[in-house]
Structure formats: structure tokens, C-alpha cells
Amino acid sequence: MGSKNYASLRMATHRAATQAQFVCDALTSESDLGDISAEILRQCLQRNSRDNMTCMIMHFADGSEWTNYPDEMKNYEKLVDGDRDEDVQSHYATFLSTAKFPAQAVTCNVCQRWLVQMQQCTCKQTFYCSRHCQKKGWKVHQAVCPNKQAK
Ligand SMILES: [Zn+2]
Ligand SMILES: [Zn+2]
């Protein structure tokens, strides 16, 4: 191996070690592996990477802690309101259906989160991510809820 190759290999190894250290630092009991992966990809984009990037963090655990957490679609605003590049939109639609999300965003009336399963008011016009948000939102929603006004 030439010395130039050796130098670039060392550089790549150094970068990998820096990222590994970043993952170690970011891992706490509260952290979300998806958020950490997204941050790594963001950093690569900032360094002007043109590669087709995939980031995978392996976490060896049985996963039972997460079985009660429904899947959440994050950063959907960018694709809902953003540029309507047809290619991107069609990949997005495929991704939604594979992940079992409806084609249109159904968001929490209080905090705007979009989970795969949402709670809804009996009037079926307002959605909430949780009982907590539903209670919080009722103060405002009761003024306009058709079910409440019918009584
Ligand atoms: Zn909510
Ligand atoms: Zn209602």
C-alpha cells in the first residue's frame, strides 16, 4: 500500500472513530437511535458528502421496552409542505405505506406529533397522539366540537 493510501485510510479510520465516540456520547437512557443516525447523516451532508449514505447503529437488546411505543413519523412537514419533486414524493408515498401510515398526515391537535395510531375525539374531526394531549386539547376543542354542541 502506498503512503498516500495509507494516509487516507488513517483519515477514514479516524473519522469512523470520531463518529463512534459521538454515538457513545449521545447514547443515554433517553436517546433515540433514529435521532442519532439522523444527526450523523446531517453532519456528513454538511461536509458535502455526495455518497449514497446509510447509517446503521446496532443496539443489542430484546426490545421489549419499546413494544408499547407506537411508531412515529418525524419531520414529515418537510415533505408535506416542501418541494413537490415527483420522485421524492413517490418514494415518500411508498415509505408511508410500507410503514403502515396513512397517505395524508394525521397529526395531534395539540403537539403536532404523528403516530401510526392516533386517538380521536368522538366527533372524528380531531386527532390526538395520547390521552394526555386529548385532555389538554379539550379546553379549546369543546367550544367547536359538534358532539359537545349537540348536547
Ligand atoms: Zn400530542
Ligand atoms: Zn370533538
TrEMBL record:
GO terms for molecular function: zinc ion binding. The keyword Transcription does not apply. It comes from Cladocopium goreaui. Residues 108-145 form the MYND-type domain. This is MYND-type domain-containing protein. Keywords: Metal-binding, Zinc, Zinc-finger. SUPFAM superfamilies: HIT/MYND zinc finger-like, PP2C-like. It holds the Pfam family zf-MYND.
